[in-house]
Design goal:
This protein is α+β, with helices and mostly antiparallel strands. The protein has a single domain, classed as Ribonuclease T2-like (Ribonuclease Rh, Chain A), CATH 3.90.730.10. About 35% of the residues lie in helices and about 20% in strands. It is built from seven helices and nine strands. Strands 1, 2, 3, 4, 5, 6, 7, 8 and 9 form a nine-stranded mixed β-sheet that branches. A hairpin with a 4-residue loop joins strand 5 and strand 6. The termini are far apart. Keywords: Disulfide bond, Endonuclease, Endoplasmic reticulum, Glycoprotein, Hydrolase, Lyase, Lysosome, Nuclease, Secreted, Signal. One of its GO terms (biological process) is RNA catabolic process.
Length: about 240
Amino acid sequence: MKSLTFVVLLCLGCGLMTSSFVLELPHMWSKLILTHHWPSTFCSMEHCHSKFDYWTLHGLWPDKGQECNSSLHFNETLIQDLLPEMQKWWPDLKIPESSRFWKYEWQKHGTCAAKAESLNSQHKYFGKALELYHKLDLDGVMKKCNIVPSETYYTFDLIEGNILNFYNVKPKIQCIHPKEGKVQILGQIEICFNSDFQLDNCEHSETDTVNLNVKGAGFSVCDHATPVYYPPLKGKLLV
């Protein structure tokens, strides 16, 4: 009888542990998305005037969850030593002198990244994003591959192929799609990492969209068959 009772308790215990695991697993991210945006394209949508002629950071986004912990308030004093780098590489393109953008990124994405011990503070989160940004050096890689801002157009396959060949993982490349549809404008590039901060493929569907709170506009996955415009800092605007 004691043996039977032990078996029953053991099974119940395993069941509880399994249920707990199943409930907790969906809430923990498994991939990080390091997102870069091209300032000229962003400012053509947001009507700002960018002085940045290199790919800047948009954010470091866990693949699961948004605004995960409202008790983790943004505090700029905790990242004072990182501010010079952030102002240069992770600026608010609309208001470069503001910390508003970092507060937004921390509240929306950082509080979810913080589920991992390696990112469980503002300093760890912003510091790791900068570290991965410099490790990738996307702007330098694009130039090495002779993909530079130009008034002429590129094929999507050329851009994606060079990034894939260099990093050996598939990125997600996003564009603006003007109404006339003859050309798309390069706007955002995502490169992904696993939970150990090793490069990983970015998964996406053709309907993936990033909402930038711009009426009638936004970044969506680039079309393989449409020419790509990579606008210079003071290039012509197509939107």
